[in-house]
Design a protein that fits this description.
- It is a single chain.
- 45% of the residues are buried.
- This protein has a six-stranded mixed sheet. A five-stranded mixed sheet has the order 7-8-9-10-11, with no helix packed on it.
- α7 packs antiparallel against α8 and α8 packs across α11.
- Helix content is 44%, strand content 18%.
- The chain is of the alpha/beta class and 301 residues long.
- β3, α1 and β4 form a beta-alpha-beta unit.
- The chain starts with a strand and ends with a helix.
- The longest helix is centred in the C-terminal third of the chain and has 24 residues.
Length: 301
Amino acid sequence: MKLHILDLNFFVPKVIGSYLIETDDGPVIVDTGPESTFENLKHSLSEFGYSVEDVRTVLVTHIHLDHSGAAWRFAEKGSKIHVHPNGAKHLIDPTKLVNSAERIFKDKMKELWGEIRAIDESQVITLEDRDVLKLGGLKFEALETFGHASHHHSYIVEDVVFSGDVTGICIEGGPIILPTPPPDINIEQWLESIEKLRKISPSKLYPGHFGEIQKAEEHLDLLEYTVFEMTEFVGTRLKKGIEENEIISEYLEMANKVMDENNVSEDRVKAYDFADFFWMNSLGLIRYWKKFRSSELAETQ
């Protein structure tokens, strides 16, 4: 498999990766990144001798704007956009997706994500769990991996997995940060997804943020530990009746401490923060506790 990691340079290097896979039937893209970095992606494709028009197949791990925001650009040029059934409607009509994002990002929407347009229904192809797409001598298998989002696929190609956000934020060998923005976080499903990936036993992982993870088994073990740690960090404070604003503040302090303890450079900390806005993570976990484990909170208050 001819695989290339395309750095979309989302404000700083090594924040969002798009993956180019060369096949005998032409190039395949896994995740397009946001529309705001489309020109960067276009330039990266040209360095390998391809134009946007050459890309006939795009695989979307999930429809969050940092992963699928530029998909409409490819669809306009004839690409088929493959996505989980739960996410397809939001590509066809992104109104709800945009409204949700605007509540969080407000006047920063354009700067962060660029232009967002609907994709014609004829260009959107849904893949169910374990569906296989055969292209140019390669098999692309969709694996339903919920937890971060309720419309999340990972894609198995040969012995590697393109894992979107379900394997966490891990920028070129740095620490794992768990991306838990609202509204879809489901920790039980996330743990199930980790177990699914373990059973596949991939040789390498390719997350959206960022780069190649060579020790997949070791990474999944550390990811599972991180899921438990971050979930309990928020849950413990909710059980004590600590106000949400204080939990957000403490979560930020904890995330920055993780960066310090792992000697992450200032530039790389910026990359982590752009890849996964730290302040949003506690909000998603707070929502998870109140939605799925409210009875545990009530017992302690």
